[in-house]
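Anyone else keep sequences and structure tokens together like this?

Example one:
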Amino acid sequence: QVHLVESGGGLVQPGESLRLTCTASGRFTNYRMGWFRQAPGKEREFVATISWRLGQPLYADSVKGRFSISRDQAKNTGYLQMNNLQPDDTAVYYCGGGDTTGKYYSTWGQGSQVTVSS
């Protein structure tokens, strides 16, 4: 079974940037890779997803224009570039492997903490 590992989180000030990386332990065979986040006391929410073969992205309205999702098929790695981070972006970010519908994710990483604070 392929495992996913997130990295790249940290503590930044408002307006700064971070890039999260999601690396698969083997060949990534899911239809899509998605990023979700969960803030304290809140449910996990969708952030962005990308179809693995075609590279088509989709974003939550809250991050559109600030975040960019991409992938490197040869490296079995996905990325989430996050610009102009705001305190509301503070959360644990998870990457997952999803199906064609985008409704079901069968593989998850352990999460990476992103904290935005002045």
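And example two:
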Amino acid sequence: QVQLVESGGGLVQAGGSLRLSCAASGRTLSSYNLGWFRQAPGKERKFVAAINRSGGSTYYADSVKGRFTISRDNAKNTVYLQMNSLKPEDTAVYYCAADPSAVVTTYRYWGQGTQVTVSS
């Protein structure tokens, strides 16, 4: 069992930056593929970014490419999402997720989410 806790959300003006963190307990994250998702009010949860177990491969939604960076620190059991050039449409609850599968189809473990609000 993996417990995930997100932090770092908040209110920021358009063009600003935030760094989200997701700390894990219960298991070491080094054996898990990790992802970030977001859910805006009244909308479905959507994929934002993912990183493989070694950190050597990353994947991004088109809407955040070039602005967001996912990274991981296995020694700290933490995954990060650096968000730059934020836009009002980035407003959402952001969730981190983890899965031990070699190929992830559905993430097994989820955090509770952290709110990000971008004002225009």
